[in-house]
């Protein structure tokens, strides 16, 4: 992140260069990808700065928050992988760090000897509650966008995700007899 804002928009300049080089069919997509990547960098920097005092990365926070949302504070590792939408190796690495910190434990699955259940500890629950309060206050409540803008941006990103195969609309429920 720059100490002070640029005098011009580097992404707009990149778009101009794309157009000047005859890549007009790809310029909108390049602009989208570059803009989303930059926005992600800005959002991640803000979130990471809020989580730093808690010695948490956003990945570790997400695992703790996911477990804290469950009724019993536990879930199978494979369920966590699916819900977090990241590679199993990444979740394993994240969980390893949480286990070393005493925030999560691994337990044998009650019916599948090959599976592992993740469980949040009391220390993990206390930490994630404090971290969530800080994130809500210092990162999530004030994004720099108005509520209507946020809603529209999330809608558009969800459309992109859906068209990319990230999720399907839920099937309509059958009418009661």
CATH second-level architecture of the largest domain:
Orthogonal Bundle
Kindly give the count of domains. Answer: 2
Task: Indicate the proportion of strand residues.
Answer: 5-15%
Specify the number of helices.
Answer: 7
Radius of gyration: 21 Å
The computed structural class is mainly alpha
Domain HTH marR-type: 29-162
Keywords: DNA-binding, Transcription, Transcription regulation
GO biological process, one term: response to stress
InterPro entries: HTH_MarR-typ, MarR/SlyA-like, Tscrpt_reg_MarR-type_CS, WH-like_DNA-bd_sf, WH_DNA-bd_sf
What can you tell me about this protein's structure?
The protein has helices at residues 10-20, 27-51, 58-69, 77-84, 88-100, 122-140, 147-163, and strands spanning 74-76, 104-108, 116-120. The protein is globular, with a radius of gyration of 21 Å. 59% of the residues lie in helices and 7% in strands. It folds into 2 domains: 8-54; 55-142, Orthogonal Bundle (Arc Repressor Mutant, subunit A). With 177 residues, it is mainly alpha-helical. The protein contains 7 helices and 3 strands; from the N terminus they run αααβααββαα. It has a 3-stranded antiparallel beta sheet.
List the helices and strands and how they pair.
Blueprint: H1 10-20, H2 27-51, H3 58-69, E1 74-76, H4 77-84, H5 88-100, E2 104-108, E3 116-120, H6 122-140, H7 147-163
Antiparallel strand pairs: 1-3, 2-3
Helix pairs in contact: 1-2, 2-6, 3-5, 3-6
